[in-house]
Amino acid sequence: MRTTTRSSRRVAVVGVSLSDCGRVDEATPYALHAQAARRALADSGLDRSLIDGLASAGLGTLAPVEVAEYLGLRPRWVDSTAVGGATWEVMAAHAADAIAAGHANAVLLVYGSTARADIRARRRTGNLSFGARGPLQFEVPYGHTLIAKYAMAARRHMHEYGTTLEQLAEVAVRTRANAALNPEAMFREPITVDDVLDGPMIADPFTKLHCCIRSDGGCAVLLVAEEYVRDCRKAPVWILGTGEHVSHTTMSEWEDFTVSPAAVSGRLAFERAGVRPSDIDLAEIYDAFTYMTLVTLEDLGFCAKGEGGAFVQEKDRLPVNTDGGGLSACHPGMRGLFLLVEAVRQLRGEAPGLQVRRPDGSLPELAVASGTGGWFCSSGTVVLGRS
After folding, report:
1. Which residues contact 20 (CB under 8 A, 6 or more apart)?
2. Most CB atoms within 10 A, among 69, 131, 317, 368?
3. What pLDDT, in 10s, does the model give residues 223-242?
4. Where's the Thiolase C-terminal domain (predicted)?
5. Helix axes 290-299, 146-161, angle to 10 degrees
6. pTM score > 0.90 for this model?
7. What gap in Å lies between CA 48 and CA 38, rounded to an integer?
8. Backbone angles phi, psi at 241, to 5 degrees
9. How far apart are CA 230 and CA 246, in angstroms?
């Protein structure tokens, strides 16, 4: 294995893949991890012996130790950061730093979940509990669920800026339109704003179609140091800049419900990449609920605070969640890694559905993936580019 002790190396994504996704009744989460990892490695064209770093979360008692053993890997660099849906963007940042510093040469980020199949088989219930210890003890007795926290934040944005239910519904409609073009998406039937508004209420103002789907699935992303790129099967996609931020866990400590932690992680990622939001060709944004897309677009700087509602209604706005997102394509739990996979596919010109093109017909040059964790508790943002 080649090694280096150089203090700064460029870092590229050279392999991405999904496992089987959607309705996967017969696989285990470990099997989905392995399937995604094998496919990403094949996508890269590299040998598995090169992998000396592993990042994984959400499975087992000692993640990523158990996942490493299942995959037959013995990594010398590991990360098990767990900050909800933003985990994978934060892990990508950590992996890129480790590779740049010479602490690892090739890091595999891998995830798999059978959240949907487990419920169907009655291995778990549909409720997600984060427990009632620590700071959460002051909220849990009042039935303040995860979705209720997002819903309350959405209501505050509506109160402060006049954001409408129709504007929030437009996020779901546009995302479903993208999913309709993606053969890998779980739900592809077109929907209308009225369909969203007329659905069963889940947590005011969110009806069913304001909320992400529940699916099975996994994916993997392989990052390597620049000197290995020449051995890869496909052109690299470079990590240009990253940022991470945590803000709160109890709602009483959240200073402004209309500002997500992406306001910090996004600014850091763009500054470190040396680009501006206006330079970005497409955005992959965590969308467990429609409000997340709208407010993250504001906080990343694609429009001013309070203008997200009008922005998502614009006909020729920035392409967002091009695969159909968590609202329609797949959402097996912590979806952040799927954002990176879709961003890389777009930059390569390999999107299975909607392929973004620049005005001159060329492939996109820059993409941003921004994950959100908990109930706007954490954020990780990654800027990726073809050069």
Report:
1. 27, 32, 35, 216, 217
2. 368
3. 999 999 999 999 999 999 99
4. 243-386
5. 60
6. yes
7. 9
8. -170, 145
9. 37
